[in-house]
Amino acid sequence: MPSDPIRDLLAAAAEQYRTVERRFEENLGAPAVPSTLQVGVKNLLENLRSALDYLAHELFDSCCTGQRKPKKIYFHIATKLSAFNNQVDHSFPSLRTRHPRVVEALYYYQPVHSQACNKWVEQFRKLTNTTKHEALLRYTRQSRVVGSPGCLDLGGVVLFDADANAFVEYRFEGTTINAHLLLWQASTCIPMMVSEIRSTVRWSLL
């Protein structure tokens, strides 16, 4: 089987995600987030980000033949259309004219395309661009009757610590990003993004 660093990175990330999920459960009652969980989340995010950046290099090599390769190529994530267009034109010269469907595929997964569906992509960008946000913090709330004051103070994805009769949410430091939800979204959607963009490139090259 030929070497495929993107495949290998995604496979490693899938295993890391399973380990992180298990450690979330195992450390529900811990007074602080253990370093093994912190490191696991950091490595998971880095591997997913690296897979996207490898994809950007692969895209250039496949679709921008004959063009001078920029010194830095990475998978751009944009919240403004002008920024997306500038990034595409800078990193992938001639892509817009030669392979417009590939540009459409890249745009589809951008926050600028849909804040509702792709909000997690912008959150992922912030976390992988700013290392200080990778630290996890643990928030708890005593169990309350649904509808009572304060019962919705935590995020949309929480765990339940039966021993303490409390809900537990993990967030990234300095943000309100729900770690459980973001990690699930990134681990589920990034392999789909890679597959879809690769498929579009293959069809565009026919």
How can the largest sheet be summarized?
3 strands, antiparallel
Strand order of the largest sheet: 1-3-2
Q: Tally of extended strands? A: 3
> What is the tally of helical segments?
7
- Beta strand %: 5-15%
In words, what does this structure look like?
The longest helix has 29 residues, at about 35-65. This protein has seven helices and three strands. β2 (about 160) and β3 form a beta hairpin. The model is unreliable at about 145-150 (pLDDT under 50). The radius of gyration is 19 Å and the shape is elongated. With about 210 residues, it is mainly α. A three-stranded antiparallel β-sheet has the order 1-3-2, with no helix packed on it. α5 packs antiparallel against α7 (about 180-205). The protein has helices at about 5-25, 35-65, 80-90, 95-100, 100-110, 115-130, 180-205; strands at about 135-140, 160, 165-170.
Q: What is the topology?
A:
Elements: H1 5-26, H2 35-63, H3 81-91, H4 95-98, H5 100-108, H6 115-129, E1 136-142, E2 159-161, E3 166-172, H7 179-205
Antiparallel strand pairs: 1-3, 2-3
